[in-house]
Amino acid sequence: MVYLPLFVKRWLSYFKEVPVEYVRSEWHPVLVVKLSQGKFILDGERVNYAFEGLDAFFRLAFQKTGIPHENTKTALILGFGVGNVATILKEKDPSISITGVDADPVMKDLAEKYFGLKKLGGTEVITDDVVHYIRSTNLTFDLIVVDVFLEEKIPEPLQQRGVLRKLEKLLNAGGVLFFNTLGDTPELRDESGKIFETAYLVWKGSEQVQVINNQPIIYKKSGR
Questions:
Q1: What is the structure's pLDDT at 43?
Q2: Global pTM?
Q3: Which helix (H) or strand (E) holds 201?
Q4: Secondary element (H or E) of residue 64
Q5: Summary count for the chain: helices (H), strands (E)
Q6: CB 39 within 8 Å of CB 116
Q7: Residue 104 contacts residue 27 (beta carbons within 8 Å)
Q8: Strand order, beta sheet including 48-50
Q9: Which terminus of the chain is more solvent-facing, meaning fewer CB atoms within 10 Å of its CB: N or C?
Q10: Cα→Cα distances 197→10, 22, 27, 194, 216, Å
């Protein structure tokens, strides 16, 4: 393999995507850091994990749903990845205090190496299984974003009614919970609909919206 300096790869990326690093982990059999149009992105075996279609989705979804709202001082990101959501929130309000949780320590390493995590002040990233964190923490937040996938699948434990109830307890009065689900295929739309049916029983008044090919569930807690 011919070695190319990073600045050369960045220049080439304006013509085609350029692989930078291949990584394996316990949670992800394939992770590929690439340069595209001069920017780092992260792909899994079948899906984009960072800063491409995912970035466009969250920017549009947050615009449509008013996230973060004016009273958002603290945010919890479950499925932190390499920091898409944190970056977008910090662009809107640098003062937001962010706690991120991700089970895969490789994600945190890549976030620090390629995606500017160290520059996101007021951001703490915890390596932990998200369901374990939900069940064990007593902290509460003004915004909770759930974006947990293994490739295109949402882990079954995260869909359980008891876990969804605890999530609501972690949300401050007047806060917003954003639970991302996919809708690219009939199978994924069916799964998304079933998750919403369960969530609606717990989060009364929640709604499911269509944003590009995703179908996030939005719950706004009364109060404040």
A1: 86
A2: 0.92
A3: helix 186-202
A4: helix 53-65
A5: 7, 11
A6: no
A7: yes
A8: 18-23, 31-36, 39-43, 48-50
A9: N
A10: 45, 38, 28, 5, 13
Q: Which two tokens stand for residue 205?
A: 């008044």
Q: What is the mean pLDDT of residues 69-75?
A: 93
Give the pLDDT score at 184: 76
Closest by Cα among 135, 117, 114 to 125: 117
Q: Are 217 and 210 in contact (CB under 8 A)?
A: no
* Cβ atoms of 34 and 21 closer than 8 Å: no
Q: Is 86 left (phi over 0), alpha (psi -120 to 50) or beta?
A: alpha
DSSP code of 55? Answer: H
pLDDT tens-place string over residues 1-22: 457 788 888 888 899 989 999 9
The one-letter code for the residue type at 222 is S
| Token reading at 166 | 């605890």
Q: What is the mean pLDDT of residues 208-223?
A: 90
Give the pLDDT confidence score for residue 50 in this predicted structure.
Answer: 66
Which one from 55, 142, 147, 190 is the annotated catalytic residue?
A: 147
Rounded to a whole number of angstroms, the distance between the first and last alpha carbons of the chain is 59
| Mean pLDDT of the 107-114 span | 93
Q: How far apart are CA 215 and CA 213, in angstroms?
A: 7
Chain position carrying tokens 């990101």: 77
- The predicted-structure confidence for 11-54, as pLDDT tens digits, reads as follows 888 999 899 999 988 888 889 999 988 889 888 877 776 666 67
Average pLDDT, the chain: 90
Dihedral pair phi/psi, residue 122, rounded to 5°: 70, 25
Residue count of the chain: 224
Let me know if 109 is a catalytic residue. Answer: no
